[in-house]
Design goal:
By secondary structure, this protein is of the alpha/beta class. It has a domain of 214 residues: 3-Layer(aba) Sandwich (Rossmann fold), CATH 3.40.50.720. 41% of the residues lie in helices and 17% in strands. The strands form four sheets. Strands 3-2-1-4-5-6-11 form a seven-stranded parallel β-sheet, sandwiched between helices. β2, α2 and β3 form a beta-alpha-beta unit. α3 packs parallel to α5. The longest helix has 22 residues. It is globular, with a radius of gyration of 19 Å. It starts with a strand and ends in an 8-residue tail after the last helix. 48% of the residues are buried. Bound molecules: nicotinamide-adenine-dinucleotide and uridine-5'-diphosphate-4-deoxy-4-fluoro-alpha-D-galactose. Nicotinamide-adenine-dinucleotide (NAD) binds next to α1, β2, α5, β5 and β7.
């Protein structure tokens, strides 16, 4: 069985490629490397002892995508390729809508031509918007997204629902990720943000290796037990395993359906710092600064639907997330670039 993985050289894609190869799938990765490094895939091959096919290119290029489908016998697609920086999306909306929405349209058209009808899509908890109640459930309304990145994910979900209505053969699992962190336990692959990290976990990890002097904690006056925001952090390997299970779901179901992938626990920023310090033995200097615009106070997942229908449940602890993050960052202080 061959799986086309768009964006497979990236953070979540590379971890998913490992789980796919370990589960016996043939893997074809397409990626334009706009936010990743070819080295991640070499390491995927090294740690699984298996080969994958890598084709460099842009999913917005419809003719090229047609050739990819024509020259490989693809059974299903996992679609990670997207631009994902929330702040950047506010200043570059055209790029974000073009890459994420038009790229997905091109992919859907190519799948249609090639007769491929099974798709797993990377969505996000951000589609619930600011008025949803915690824990988020899939039957709650979506909408009220506050930036072009989040809106692009919501537009794509709606496109996929429309396409599945029009084509009863289509089967799509829309996986709404909460906050993926951590790295493969080998320490060979992990998150490698370009420039200053936007997200909490890679920022903490870069402070720990001395690449940043201190962490700014965005807001200490939220209505939470310690005043800092709560998020549902899940291990990237648990998330990767969820994609393999979602492939099984799309093979046996029709229609487009959203699934939350999270642990169900809300952890504060200060608790994250303490957990990292305990796992690494490294002190993280921090300062509480004003709130970051657009941040929600706290959200976490109700993932019972994924448990019932995909047979998926997050297994790895917060301590494991921290130990694995530290092993990756300590062993690769410059990510995939040579030290
Ligand atoms: P990432 O940037 O590490 O990976 C995305 C990959 O897609 C990169 O390798 C990039 O080079 C590639 N790509 C982007 N545009 C492309 C294009 N037009 N053609 C070909 N390749 C292209 O990001 P990630 O964290 O692994 O995220 C994967 C997916 O999960 C994204 O769709 C993202 O929006 C979604 N998601 C991520 C998070 C998170 O916190 N990491 C949370 C929710 C959802
Ligand atoms: N935070 C800090 N300092 C930092 C970075 C983050 O205090 O330097 C705080 C944030 O204010 C927030 C928490 O840490 O309270 C988590 O922030 P992240 O940026 O790591 O994650 P978000 O929840 O803001 O957003 C992430 C992804 C989005 C996705 C969302 C839901 O970046 O793309 O999870 O899945 F939409």
């Amino acid at each position: 069985m061959s799986v086309l993985v768009t964006g497979g050289a990236g953070y979540i894609g590379s971890h998913t490629a490992v789980e796919l190869l370990d589960s016996g799938f043939d893997v074809v990765v397409v990626d334009n490397l706009c936010n990743s490094n070819r080295e991640s895939l070499r390491r995927v091959e090294a740690l699984t002892g298996k080969k994958l096919t890598f084709i460099e290119g842009d999913i917005c290029d419809a003719n090229w995508l047609d050739q990819v489908f024509a020259s490989h016998n693809i059974d299903s697609v996992i679609h990670f390729a997207a631009l994902k920086a929330v702040g950047e999306s506010v200043s570059r909306p055209i790029d974000y809508y073009h890459n994420n929405v038009s790229g997905t349209l091109a992919l859907l058209a190519a799948m249609n031509k090639a007769g491929v009808s099974k798709l797993v899509f990377s969505s996000s908890a951000t589609v619930y918007g600011s008025s949803a109640k915690v824990p988020y459930r899939e039957d709650q309304a979506t909408g009220g997204t506050t930036n072009p990145y989040g809106s692009s994910k919501l537009i794509i979900e709606n496109m996929l629902l429309d396409c599945a209505k029009a084509n009863p053969a289509l089967s799509v699992a829309m996986l709404r990720y909460f906050n993926p962190i951590g790295a493969h336990e080998s320490g060979l692959i992990g998150e490698d943000p370009q420039g200053i990290p936007n997200n909490l976990m890679p920022f903490i990890a870069q402070v720990a290796v001395g690449k940043r002097s201190q962490l700014s904690v965005f807001g200490g006056d939220y209505n939470t037990p310690d005043g800092t925001c709560l998020r549902d952090y899940l291990h990237v390997v648990d998330l990767a395993v969820g994609h393999v299970q979602a492939l099984d779901w799309v093979a046996n179901n029709q229609g487009a359906k959203p699934f939350n992938l999270g642990t169900g626990n809300g952890t504060s920023v200060l608790e994250m710092i303490a957990a990292f310090e305990a796992a690494s033995g490294v002190k993280i200097p921090y300062e509480i600064v004003p709130r970051r615009e657009g941040d929600l106070e706290g959200f976490w997942a109700d993932s019972r639907l994924a448990e019932q229908e995909l047979g998926w449940k997050a297994k790895l602890s917060l301590e494991r997330m921290m130990i694995d993050t530290w092993r990756w960052q300590h062993g690769n202080p410059n990510g995939y670039l040579p030290s």
